[in-house]
Design brief:
This protein is α/β, with parallel strands linked by helices. 37% of the residues lie in helices and 21% in strands. The chain has one domain: Formyl transferase, N-terminal domain (Rossmann fold). Helix 2 links the parallel strand 2 and strand 3. Helix 5 crosses helix 6. The longest helix has 25 residues. It binds glycinamide ribonucleotide (GAR).
Length: 202
């Protein structure tokens, strides 16, 4: 059984895609052991609970400084002993201590075709705003391993999505989710669970 911890910050539609894929058997031999949100108001926490998955909030606001928050996040992860950590719309930079402890065991979904529109400041709707401002005709999503940089780890999967005339950031975000994110993230987890993509190796 692959033990997965999912980190979230908001709506949790990618978490929803993982939960659906578990239910329908598209992802096999996998259990989501804990969902952690940095944001107490994240709807993702409700999604997890309604599927009987343990959901906890570890908010930076509950700690005196960033170091203390980072330590709490690390222990929240260690406690549930995950084989794999999935960042599913987690809008907090992962500290080096966590990357080192779970080397090659953390994957992220990013809403663009890396190396375009990624790195510092590119997250959520901001990515789609930048895509529309630049006028590119094709965007998409990427699943990648998390290393010490921002969106710099090894790429696991990508899927392209068309930008259409009249798109708003919200409309484009939804299309990228539907046509790319909700497909390639569960596929990546399924392949990891099946041993087709190796994790934890140097
Ligand atoms: C998703 O579009 C995800 O790719 C993005 O945040 C959204 C979360 O939506 N992540 C990033 O921008 C990470 N840099 P969700 O909470 O509905 O899954």
């Amino acid at each position: 059984m692959l033990r997965v911890a999912v980190l979230v910050s908001g709506g949790g539609t990618n978490l929803g895609a993982l939960l659906d894929a578990l239910k329908t058997g598209k992802i096999k031999n996998t259990e989501i052991v804990r969902v952690i949100s940095n944001n107490p108001g994240a709807f993702a926490l409700e999604r997890a609970k309604s599927h009987g998955v343990e959901a906890v909030c570890i908010s930076p606001k509950s700690f005196p400084d960033r170091e203390a928050f980072n330590r709490a996040l690390l222990s929240g992860l260690k406690e549930c002993d995950p084989d794999l950590i999935v960042l599913a719309g987690f809008l907090v930079n992962i500290p080096e201590s966590i990357v080192k402890t779970f080397k090659n065991r953390i994957i992220n979904i990013h809403p663009s075709l890396i190396p375009s529109f990624c790195g510092k400041g590119y997250y959520g709707l901001k990515v789609h705003e930048a895509v529309l401002n630049r006028g590119v005709k094709v965007t998409g999503a990427t699943v990648h391993f998390v290393d010490e940089g921002i969106d710099t780890g090894r790429i696991i999967a990508q899927k392209a999505v068309e930008v259409l005339p009249g798109d708003t950031p919200e409309v484009l975000q939804r299309r990228v989710m539907e046509q790319a994110e909700w497909i390639i993230l569960p596929e990546a987890v399924a392949k990891i669970a099946a041993g087709e993509i190796k994790i934890g190796e140097a």
